Amino acid sequence: MTAALLLPGARRLLLRRPELGASAVVVGAWVALLALAAQGGHRHVSGGLPHWTLMTVAMMGPTALAGIRHTGLNSLRWRRRRAMAEFVVAYLAVWIAFGVLALTGAALVPAEPGSAAFAIVLAGAAAWQLSPLKRRWLRDCHRSVPLPPRGWAAEWAALRFGLRNGAACLGSCWCLMLVMAVASGLLWTVLIAGFVTAEKLLQQPRQATRLGAGVLAIAAAGAAVAALA
User: Fold this and answer.
1) Residue 77: how many CB atoms within 10 A of its CB?
2) Which pLDDT tens digit goes with each residue over 104-161?
3) What is residue 76's three-state secondary structure?
4) 80-108 vs 151-182: helix axis angle to the nearest 10?
5) Which of 31, 111, 113, 165 is most buried (CB neighbours < 10 A)?
6) 40-49, 70-79, 186-195: least confidently modelled range
7) What radius of gyration, in Å, describes the C-alpha atoms of the chain?
8) What CA–CA distances, in Å, run from 227 to 71, 125, 154, 182, 218?
9) CA atoms of 135 and 128, how far apart (whole Å)
10) How many CB atoms lie within 10 A of CB 97?
């Protein structure tokens, strides 16, 4: 009897909050990252593209939830799941393509923590956080688009929205995620994910951006000192 009462309530909740399924996937990705960290397997280059994809779902997933919700609420009920899946596939495709480039570069030019290359990556990320281009891409991350209700136009619109949103988030956060291509340890993952999420969800994201720049600059200085020691 209780289950019969809960199921309609769950359906109504999913109709109002269609992004809840994606939220559960993000939580699962974080659980997997914590399990890998407990086993000592939190090195992104050695983990390759599968680890990068898992990390992207965990770290960038919260910033994509608004786009997933917009896609779900603005699609007809019978094609809502497909539209959200199209958005997610396109969004992840952008980050996976960047991951291929970032991991390849990290393999060719090792930037171990405490090295000069690592200090340069951190300093570059700190500078990017304060650049006008960063602010422009961050504004684009918050923009949505109208979605046609049906037909091939609706399919392509969901895919284009995912690509556009993914590209905007990549433009805003590529330097932060480049740090993740060379950094190791769960602390960096949590820090960067916190900055990225705060920039997307806070009403005044510039404060989070400046805080991130400050932390990265301090870390860059520490890495530079370690490299010279």
Assistant:
1) 9
2) 887 777 666 667 888 888 999 999 999 999 999 998 888 888 888 878 888 999 999 9
3) coil
4) 30
5) 165
6) 40-49
7) 19
8) 47, 18, 53, 15, 14
9) 9
10) 12
Residues 229, 223, 108, CA angle at the centre, nearest 5°? 105
68 touches 83 (CB < 8 A): no
DSSP label of 183: -
Q: How many CB atoms lie within 10 A of CB 35?
A: 10
5, pLDDT greater than 60: no
**Token couple for 8:** 């309609």
Among candidate residues 58, 68, 61, 60, the one with its CA nearest the CA of residue 144: 68
Angle, alpha carbons 199-202-205 (nearest 5°):
45
Separation of alpha carbons 12 and 20, rounded Å: 12
Q: What is the residue whose two structure tokens read 């520490």? A: 222
